[in-house]
Amino acid sequence: MNEQIRISPVRVVSDTGELLGVMPTDQALNAAREAGLDLVEVAPNERPPVCRIMDFGKFKYQKKKREHKSHGHQVKIKEIRVRPKTGEHDIETKVKHAREFLEHKDKVILSVVFRGRELAHKEEGRRVVDQFIKSLEDVGKVETHPSEQGKRIVCTIAPK
To answer: CA-CA 20 to 30 A from 47: which of 63, 73, 122, 130?
Structure first.
């Protein structure tokens, strides 16, 4: 960059992208200073080396911004646990949390946990799962259908 370029002559490209031709390094530096920009070596292995007139600070900023943007969202799996006797309002609150997770592109695992004699009333747990799925069908789709795993019913909901 600028005075660090030792080789002369260099091929110069303007800030607009037009080729200015081959010129001595000091003349290229003067052209860059007149434009209020930097002279940056972009292809050092070419003969003559290619230099571009650009705002180096802005270039670094945009490059960092592009790199940051390329990192996509890492999908997380969030679990929501309810019991068959969980109250209506509590289920609504859990649905609201699940909706937020799905809007953030995270998966939600819904677990209905049974304890003691609640296992005799699995249909109550199924009702809770079905109610949950129905209230989230606008933001998510069922990835794995409700299945019984021991003392719980588990269902995975993925964002649409």
So the answer is: 63
